[in-house]
Fold each of these.
Amino acid sequence: MKIAVYPGSFDPLTNGHLDIIERSSKIFDEVIVSVLINIDKNTLFTTEERVELIKKVVEPYKNVKVESFDGLLIDYVKQKNSNVIIKGLRALSDFDYEFQMALMNHKLDSNIETVFMMTNAKYSYVSSSSIKQVAKFGGCLKDLVPDIIIPSLTNKFRGD
Ligand code: PNS
């Protein structure tokens, strides 16, 4: 059974992330969407909120699981009996950061491979941080994040 781990902050999950999840679920037997427990980062959603929201979104994909993790990614990947990390790449601007992380993870454990998937062109401009700005100022979130996430996102900024 080939298990892949798709890690990230997912604050919030975007349609770009969902596209990567859907495509990787067709390649691997099981995909574990793994939400980083950000201890030193201010997130809009708590770890538990992110996990619950993503679980609702991925319900139709029977081979996709959602969990949270902390510590080193490679330790978590090994613990899950996996050796594949999935990452999405949008533009050249993602490359430096992702390249560094992939090399560091490979240095820490050369049995673990990072597999990059190019984003779907229609989501190449979508990021969690730009979505938070759109939500904060009341812009339209349709087609940017899964519909299930929109009410939770707008509620976070209600009263601001
Ligand atoms: O969505 P993000 O914020 O770009 O995801 C980053 C993530 C979760 C993949 C990265 O921060 C991570 O792997 N954190 C765990 C700590 C770790 O293993 N660091 C060593 C690799 S540089």
Note: The pocket of 4'-phosphopantetheine is lined by residues 7-9, 36, 72-73, 101, 104-105 (CB under 6 Å).
Amino acid sequence: MSEEKDGIIVILSSPSGAGKTTLVKRISIENNYKISISHTTRKPRTNEVDGKDYFFVNEDKFQKLIDKGEFLEYAKVFENFYGSTKSKVIEHLNNGENVIFDIDWQGTEQIKKKKLNYKLITFFILPPSRTELFNRLKNRDMKDKNIVEKRMNQFNKDINHWENYDFVVINDNLDTCYKEIIKLINKKKENPNYSYDKKNIQNHIQKLRR
Ligand code: ADP
Ligand code: 5GP
């Protein structure tokens, strides 16, 4: 069982471009959550800093971390490897610090299966519309049309995983979405059985599939 003094784990997943990295940063800054900084074999974007946004490593180094059993979870996403290492995360949690993860559905499933002795709250973030998602990806990944296309193509598959999360939240207005996530974390901490109205989300998912 988790102890009252331990930190909690919060996971945010979403189709690429829905805004989870932006939300994770804000939750970390405003609520003092520690971010689990992933390792990846993906190349850095222009504004990304090694050791802050990711630990950028080659496949050889990534494989060595797998072999040494350093990962809590890892997965291949869009042809690159991504993984969350254990030691820092566990240290934070045992110190009573909350830890937030920006990982995909495969990593979330792996962490859920581990049944760690810490409270775990999972969120799936959706964009308000396909058009808005396209615009966000286009603005972020301007230089590489290929990336935007690949990520839009993956979108229909990615949204199928929404049902495996504790909560699904739409990131239309950033402020509103952020406040909703904080509200839901507090509700779930007070009442582990707290759930949400799925009907709204089901309708939204149908609209997004069109
Ligand atoms: P993800 O981590 O889910 O791939 P990002 O956090 O990188 O997505 O967001 C994708 C882009 O959309 C970024 O350029 C970010 O600044 C922007 N963005 C995120 N949330 C919003 C929002 N609510 N409204 C408008 N733009 C947003
Ligand atoms: P991006 O390349 O846009 O930063 O991330 C691509 C995808 O990889 C996103 O869905 C993101 O959540 C996921 N991701 C980032 N880090 C990890 C990780 O450590 N593990 C897993 N499983 N997915 C990750």
Note: The longest helix spans residues 174-190.
Amino acid sequence: MKRMSRIAILASGRGSNLQAVLDAIDAGLLDAEIVGVFSDKPSAPALKRVANDLRWSADAKSFPFREAFDAELADAVNKCRPDWIICAGYLRILSTAFVERFRGRLLNIHPSLLPKYRGLHTHARAIEAGDAEHGASVHFVIPELDAGAVVAQVVVPVQPGDSPETLAARVLPGEHALLLATLQLTCAGRLTERDGVIVIDGHPLFTPLHLDCAGNLA
Ligand code: GRF
């Protein structure tokens, strides 16, 4: 029998994506367990969503440089033996050493239709550009920011009069569904990455999967 996948989550803020994963596990929709939640901000609300013994945090600002913090973070993550490490609202750029240590099982959810709008303020940038559509992407993490192979995307319309806040609120449920659908594939052992190429059910994926109205990836 296939064992349950072990998922570690990196989060800096409220943790609604983490909560979506926890709810899916509780509802029997995802054959996985959360084995640790890690934060660069000890006050992050995300940490409170799991039991004490699953929480790890340190104030990144108290470390002399990025690599020093990331080395401690990496050791803590490694200790919980995760199959998958998910950046879900993790707002620090990961050092190359961290990314290389976990490469191939490190995913990020990013609120834009990558390759558009890497980095911050994605909703404001989409509105400013006059885009008709915005959305979110799940991608493998490589050292270059938000530049790894995109696994899957969800598209959301931009509506007249949208502010960054209203648009973000429309994208967020899509993010939750997208992350769950992607994790269902990874945890079932159907999706891997080799040398920058995503392989699904043994076949290379040349364009990202898209979430349909039923919340399935196609
Ligand atoms: C999400 O929009 C995520 O895509 C972005 O930060 C936000 C985090 O939300 N990177 P939450 O902390 O999961 O609620």
Note: The longest strand covers residues 32-39.
Amino acid sequence: MNHNNYQSCVAVAGSNPSIIKDESLCVECGHCLAVCSEEIGVAGKRIAPAGSETENACINCGQCSAACPEQSLQVKSEIDDVRAAIRDPEKIVVFSTSPSVRVGIGDAFLDQAGAYAEGKMVAAIKTLGADYVFDVTFSADLTIIEEGCELIKRILTGSAPLPQFTSCCPAWVKFVETYYPQIIPHLSSAKSPIGMQGATIKTYFAAKQALSPRHIVTVNVTPCTAKKAEIRRPELNDAGKLLGEPSMRDNDYVITTKELAQWMQQEQIDFAALPDMDFDSVLGKGSGAGVIFGNTGGVMEAALRMAYQSLTGNPPPDKLLEFQPVRGLEGVKEASAEIGDTTVKVAVIYGTANAARFLEGDISGYHFVEVMTCPGGCISGAGQPQMHTIPVTNDIRLSRIRSMYAEDARMTLRNSVDNPEIQQVYQEFYKEPLGELSEKLLHTTYYRR
Ligand code: SF4
């Protein structure tokens, strides 16, 4: 039976890199269609021509799969490819974990939702055979510096239009490219954190360790199904272009938190009994600002901390270290912050349907707008485990968010610009934000779909 129509349920093209659908399990309950039309704002927005596949219309967020109670819609797994890389003696397999994974992975194994399980997560990945485990909070800090400098440049010089929109959510980027291409000049050119991480591993890290980048396999563990599509964007081979090997991808695989949990279950790893382990260096340290990247408002708060210190020369005040107006689970939040002589007006949005309504209003007057596709941000990405409930409840989302803010508050390093590993990578390699090498490896372009 083929349910591929927009009347009852979401259609999934066979070539979709993020989601697969088993039509035999679909009961046409319509939960997937409801989330895709009401929260994501995609279903029904543009119907592909009859007879064609619908991959362009899908933004790969996977929220349809997170809403499916029948296991008909599922995340496309890359575990077997990663296992094969680990078995290959020539390959050096480098994992990087996104901020939200550490507050999601425990949901699959522990009674408490949203437990901060960073050390056990690292230990589990090492047990599975990783050669190195790095932290994407490092590249979240790198993103904030590049994106923050771009914002300051736009404000001070008018180099590009305001407001600047964040670009770290690939589903949001594809939403703009597909449905609002007139907004493309407003998107920050900064790559997402995993985009920066992959390019930095295959250049800076490889050179520092005297490893052949050709032998490095980069695996990102993320809460996000859209990242599976993002790493396959043709232009994201910047390390290869720089090194004269354009067939080499910056990132090779993305597995979700859910896939990591399934893999651990297959290997009968006792998560609760694992010892805590530390990330490897030199891409293993992030600030509290990098940690909170995973929840709605986190990127904005991180950017304001960075902008304050860069523009005034002083550390951000307590108010900006707990900037309440951008916290919480409202779909659209607005705020102003005094930074030097400028009143910076910002908005924080989750749900691309909310973003569409925002774009259809008057966007003039804002300086910076954060958009994440998933409800509550990446903490609730479609690749997060759902052992407790389908769909994920706001209580679970809030547990994960509280866990991240608590870790940020506990840390002494809370501003991306203070991260010593970030200072080191600029001194030894990138030299300066928005410099020649930074533009080549850490920034990208977008196109009308
Ligand atoms: Fe992926 Fe986060 Fe965007 Fe969801 S909000 S699509 S998890 S980047």
Note: Residues 77-449 form a domain with the Rossmann fold fold (CATH 3.40.50.1780).
